[in-house]
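User: Predict the structure for this protein chain, please.
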Amino acid sequence: MYGQTIRSAISIAATAGLYLSFAMLLPAALDFYFGNPDWQVFAVSSFVVGSICLGTAMATRGAAAPFSRRLGFLVVNLLWITLSVTGAVPLYMSSLGLDMADALFESVSAVTTTGATVITGLDKAPPGLLLWRSLLQWMGGIGIVALGLLVLPFLKVGGFTVFKMESSDTSEKPFARFSMFIRAFFAIYIGLTASCALLYGVFGMSELDAINHAMTTIATGGFSTHDASFGAFQSPGLIWTATVFMALAGLPFSVMIMFAVRGRLDALRDPQIAAYAGLILVLSLVIALSVRIGNGEDFAHALTHATFNVVSIVTTTGFASADYALWGPLPVALLFIATFLGGCSGSTSGGIKAYRLVIIASSVRSGLMRLIYPHAIQPVRYGAVAVEPDMQRTVFLFVCAYMGIWALGAVALSATGLDIETALSGSITALANVGPGIGPQIGPSGNFGSISDVGKMIMVFLMLLGRLEILAVLVLLIPAFWRD
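Assistant: Here is the predicted structure, written as structure tokens:
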């Protein structure tokens, strides 16, 4: 039975790699159209990756293992490792001259929608390569939503039993038929991407820029076609368009589906949405006022860039419209705190996520009330619903593991020679899948190319840990998991 579980997990991962090999033909076609010789790189990569994955899938054919938590954990980890490694192949073979560590870092950053990059000279990079990075993030966003909505809640390590809590319905799933849910999700995901690309074009982006940025905006990935990121576009229309679509992508997709397809206005009363919107509003106003008072900038200009960068970091997109490290200590401190937060459960964003913050706040309130009224019943609530003790323990286990791994990651990065500011922000920006960190080396005006290969591999591990909600990876390190 155990061997059947491993074989089934490998077969699923190989099939996903096969699909990814077909996707490589899109940047190949784009480079061929523009006469760039890198089309051959994508064509060869597609053939090699497709052949290996097809052979693996055929070799592991057989009766599928019944779905279980063990199979779920194996599939989740193997899928992201497979997509990361196969995504790195054309990057390694491209004309950019990336070594294996750089190619793997870039691919993992794309698939996990982190947005940290080691590449300089993006403005002159081959169009197919730029499309490949954006496509990896866009597909990674699809996988992340599916993971957060359908898999991790079942494994009890992420999400808040989405169909019960995010729909404000304790008895039924939002859709009786799974296929209906999938079709509605893809319609909204593709519709948001197309709408975003269209508006980017209206406000002045070229066609390629609009398509690339739309994919990485909706995936909350943050890869850009320019070294200056969104700083290359100073149009307020473009900046506010990106802000709105990043904020939408940070919302729970299950709620968006129910609102769009079923007209469920009550779905918008999900407590995490109010917490998410409130944090963005408060942080944006405080930072804008700080920039206005401290730097003397026009308030409208300060609010535009403050809101953009707050939304970008809270949703873990990682775009930057300006070097916010120059805004002063208070804005930098608040943006660093924002790195931990994240968007909503069931979105493409990373971080701790708003629903956990709501549960933690309710738990703290309940604990304080018990100090005042020791014999009173003070349940922990998520809106009107009482949170089960198992869910409370899972949330606190996640947050404790999150903070501990952040600290260990910072220590490990410091051991590679990085200064403490870079190590602390590099660890959390990788774990939270945000992208830019703090400081001149990995801040909004820098990139991660100067970090050692060992440092990059540490960050690769942190990116995967954060993307898979930490516990889904750590469980594999427990010997009992591997026992029959």
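The radius of gyration is 22 Å.
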